[in-house]
Structures are given as structure tokens and as C-alpha cells.
Amino acid sequence: MADVARRAGVSMATASRALSNHPHVASQTRARVLAAAEQLSYVISPEASRLAGGVTGRVAVVVPHIARWFFATLLEGLEWVLRDAGLDVLLYHVGDATDRRDFFQRLPARRKVDAVVVVGMPIRDEERDRLELMGVHIVAAGGQVENYPYVAIDDLSAGRQAVDHLLFLRHRRIGMIAAVDPAEPGWPATPGRTLAYTAALAEAGLPADPDLVVTVPWGGLSGADAMSRLLSLRDPPTAVYAHSDEVALGAIRTLRRAGLRIPEDMSVIGIDDHPMAELADLTTIAQPVHDQGRLAGRLLLSLLAGEPGGGGVTVPTHLVVRGSTAPPRV
Amino acid sequence: MADVARRAGVSMATASRALSNHPHVASQTRARVLAAAEQLSYVISPEASRLAGGVTGRVAVVVPHIARWFFATLLEGLEWVLRDAGLDVLLYHVGDATDRRDFFQRLPARRKVDAVVVVGMPIRDEERDRLELMGVHIVAAGGQVENYPYVAIDDLSAGRQAVDHLLFLRHRRIGMIAAVDPAEPGWPATPGRTLAYTAALAEAGLPADPDLVVTVPWGGLSGADAMSRLLSLRDPPTAVYAHSDEVALGAIRTLRRAGLRIPEDMSVIGIDDHPMAELADLTTIAQPVHDQGRLAGRLLLSLLAGEPGGGGVTVPTHLVVRGSTAPPRV
Prior knowledge:
Two copies of one chain form a homodimer.
Chain A lengths: L1 H7 L3 H8 L7 H13 L18 E6 L5 H16 L3 E6 L3 H14 L4 E5 L5 H10 L2 E5 L8 E4 L1 H14 L5 E7 L8 H15 L9 E5 L2 H12 L7 E4 L2 H13 L9 E6 L2 H5 L3 E4 L2 H16 L7 E4 L2 E3 L10
Parallel strand pairs in A: 1-2, 1-3, 3-4, 4-5, 5-11, 6-7, 6-8, 8-9, 9-10
Antiparallel strand pairs in A: 10-12
Helix pairs in contact in A: 1-2, 1-3, 2-3, 4-12, 5-6, 7-8, 9-10
């Protein structure tokens, strides 16, 4: 380290900070130190490179899905902020009940992370106890978890924006395709997005018709099936609100196959603003997913720096009008 | 550890193996040991839990994109195999030239992984030198990298399957939308998928018309733009081969907006079998992406176990006929 500092013309402390990616080092200085280290092929020992704020320099990120757009996009934003702060991301996919049990049993025993971020999943009481054992900061991203600082959208508000848009267009017979994660049937997103529908219809003085609500496992093909069920009603809806864009895109496939025009014969709205929504000209409620990851990363950095962590951050959603919604035919 | 072993009624060695997720422990025994450890709140020290085969128990996975379907799906398969073997995944996203330089400068200096998996990206000579410094195993997944064991599809063969299908349907004027990653213009996927088109047309005795080839940055909206350019030709193609499904889905949006019917007025084929391809009824060349991740994980485990690593694994692709391709109108 002394050789690196000498060669770069900086103090040992500055060289150390530059190599550990400390935020308060000018980029020119850091470049000079990195160049000197490179010339000397200086190898930082894992011990020496530990951050002042943490112990291991690593954060565990726990996700119930990796390949789905929402989770992968949030993870990209989160990794970006943590890496920029010199923290490494340990990725844990807990896909089913066995994975979850295994993860929560073993992680606390490993003592090898400074913090944990749980993405888009609920934490059960016994899991909470295991996390507490670790004594590290815990942040929830992409969904609220009781007692943990969180970054998430307001699902009730997002659902209201969707159904209110259909009501504004004067639809009176509105169907809902509710999507649940089979592994997490109790996750709050579903109640919030469902309650929004019930409340909006009630406020508009419309009757609650259980035939108009179809609940399916999350996914595009499920959305296609759900739309078939809505089309088989004696009195089908004139508009459909889907809990997510991927489900809505499945519903659109069924409508196309049935020779129905969108939006003339049926309006469709989703939630997310998935990249495919733009390509499919789908009206949707946009949520900033990459931002949720970045904000969760920043929230975690504040906690690691010893700053007081508030209860949470709710990020706004907004209506994106495209070509899949219009007033019903008279 | 002695307490855990005694309580579980096993030897110290067995208890240690069970806690470090060693493969040769019966699941009942492991459950008993975990229960005993749980009762005693036994906390494994990071040192004690190190795998026999490695030093750190961690693998670095380097990806140029996280949020894109291909990369996220491959990562899901890879993480599944590594986690099952008791290895942790450190995720590094190298999105642009600065990230890459920073990553390759710093990773070797950290000495904190047993192996590196590079996903769907080329490695430059100077980066190769940095990796060599680490003296760990390196595997390429989702694309071949010279001198490293790899798991990938044969892009030339996949491209031939796509273009040969269009030729079999008797298309004679076939357009190509070539997608390049702006950050990685030289990545072999592009040449392979492009060479396939050139070779197939030449073998069929068709002239090479440069107007029929449009090269765009990867993405759905780019595909939409590329299709507009093909439609603006005096003599547009009757079929279009896109380098990826997401690009093909963009092309389909343009065709729909132009009031053209698919496949009657224009056939479209992609590569990937993205989940949205099924919803959009897109004919495509399917590649097993989750499998590429899993196979890369297994290849890495073999190398870590000291088994000889072959040159690589090429996974097969196959045609999936859906509703977006048909013979041209006479």
C-alpha cells in the first residue's frame, strides 16, 4: 500500500480509500491510485478492503424469481447502487418452500453479509426471527414488509388509477383478472390491487358481480385462459383490468383469436409498463421498477452509514394511455 | 460442533459435512443435524464453512445485462445449480466500458471467489490477462469465449434453421433485421446469425440484396424502426428474419400499424422462444436458456472438483412453428 501511495503521490489513507471505492475520493485521484496499483499489480487482501461501515462488504439480495422482468429489473437498479458504493451483491433465489426454509435456516449461520434486501416477497414470522439472529440491516424492495424499511408502490392506488380510467371512459361492466403468485398467495400486492377494483366499483355505484372476477396464477398464459372465461359469460365485460401487463398481454391473445378488436370490442388495461406493453400498444399503470431497486440500495446505504432509516418510501405510479382502451360502443 | 454432533447422534465429520451442504450426506441426516444446530443456535464460522474444493465458497457471475430476459433466465439456471452445491453467487453487472474496466481492474485484486462465469459477453485480451491473475476457473455461458470452457448455442445453426424455414415456405425475397449490442459490436452471436442468412441465400441461388438487411441496436423499438425501413423499399420482402424475438415483436408492431396481416402479407421469424413469442404467436427458433445456465453451473462444478474440463457444450436449438410464418401469396 505504501508503494501504491508513493507512486500515485497520495497519502496511504487516500490510496486506501481510493482502492476501497470510498465516495469521497476525486475521480482523478482514484484513477491515479488505480493506475499505480495496476503497475505494481497490487492485490488488496480481503481483510484490508473491508468497508469501514460494514464487516464483509457484501449484501445478500433475496428474490423469489430471477427471470421475471419485474424482479430482474429491480435487481439491476439495486446492484447498480450497491456496486457503486463498493458493496458486492450475493444473490439468493428462493423459489419454493424448500428453498425458503433452507435459505432462512442457513443464511444467519453464515455471518457473511452486512445487510439483507428482500425483493417482492413477504417474510413470515419464523423467517423474521432467523433474520433477527444476524443482527444486520434489512430492507424490503418492491413490496412492503411489516417493520422493515421498504421501497414500493402503493398497490391500492395503482389499481384505482387503472379502474378509474375505465370508469372515466364510461365502462360500466368491468372485468378483473387477478394474478396471484402460487408460492405467495398472501402477498399484499394482490389484496391491494383487488381492493382497488372493489372500492372503485362501489364508489361508482356499480354492483359487484363475482362472475366478472377471475383469479389465476401469475403469467401470460393464465391471462389468456382467464379472458376465455370472461368471454364465456352470457354478458361479458366491455373492459378488463389485469393485475399485471404480462397477464393483460395473454388476455389480448385470446381476444385476437376470437376475432375481437381492441379497443373497439373490448378495452384492456394492465399494471407495470413492461417493455412489451409499449410494443403491444397496451394502456397501463406505469411503475418505476429500476428506480425501486436504486432507492432501496440508497436506503440501505443510509442505514449502513448509521443514518436514521424512516419507515419507507412509496414511489408514484401513473397512467400511460395507449391504444388498448376507449369508451365502450354505445 | 461437538454439541451439534452429539445432539444429532452423528460424528463431528458428518455434522460438519451436513452443515456445509456436502453432497454425500443423506437428507434425513442433514435434517437432523440442521435441527440440532437450530436448537443450539449454532453459528458456523465463515472459515469453518469453507468448501473442501474451493477457498471462499463463492462464484462471481459477470453479466452485461440483468433485466433482459435472456440474461436473467440464464442467471436463474446458473444460480440454481451453484446454490444447490453450496456455492454462493456474487453478481457483477458490467453495463458499459467504464463498468467493465472497473470490474476487471478490481476483481482480481479482491481474491474472494473460487471461479468466474462470464455470461453472454466477449472477453478482451487485457481482460483475459486480469482474469488469469486470479488463477481461478473461468467458464463462459450463453456465448463462446476463446480458450474458456463454454455452454452456448450454435448461432450459425440457429440462424440457418430460421432462414431455411422461410426458404422451405418458398419465400424468395427475405429481409433480415440484425441486432447488435451497442456495447459489444463484435460479439460472435451477430456474425453467426448474419452469416447464416448470407450462406442460406447463396445456397438457394438467391441474390444478396443489401437493401434487405437492416442492422439496429438490440431492442423491440429498434425492431419496429427496422421494419419501417424494410416497408419503405420499392420492393419490400415477403418474409423477415429477426436476430431475436424481442426485435421480431417490434417488427410485428410496425406491420400491424401499417394494416398488414401476419402471415398473409408478411412472414416473421425470430430466435429465442421468449415467453412473449408464444403470446404473440411468433414462429421462432427456440434455445434452452435456463438449461444453458444449469449446464454452465455443472461444468464449473466439474472443474472445481478437479475433473478435466472439455472445450465446451453446444446446446441444440429447434424450430417452433406458430402463426407468423406461411408461404408467400402467389
